[in-house]
Amino acid sequence: MVRAIIFDWGRTLFDSARGALFPEAVAVVERLSRTHTLAIVSLATGDNWAERVEARRGVLRESGIERHFALALFDPADKDRLYAEALAALGVRADEVAIVDDRAARGVRWGNRHGAVTVWLRRGEFARELPGEETGQPTHTIGSLAELVGLL
Fold it and tell me: What is the CA angle 122-123-125, rounded to 5?
């Protein structure tokens, strides 16, 4: 049973090309927060790391969805470590979590290796970065965040 959902940030909840949340993100987060504990685990790479993280937190506050997340963890390089930290902070096992990510090479790979439900949001920049032997196949593949509500 999925008790918690861990979202990636960029190209999953946040449309980097437009500089705003995807249109369906607020409604999906609000709906799923009624039945699941929510978290964000994401890389924040590049110069001015602290400023990039604060900008993300600002989007969460300004959009009104920050209150729906139990935690939001960002790191410049080690997303795998963040997943382990999130599980510990949320008090759940990997098999009680769904990982939602636009990249099979990151979230899907980690989730499959640890027994989580994996959801590949196949759209945008990494839609052609197909799952393979190293990542394993995602439990679910969706083309829109809105599809997530019917899955979990």
Answer: 115
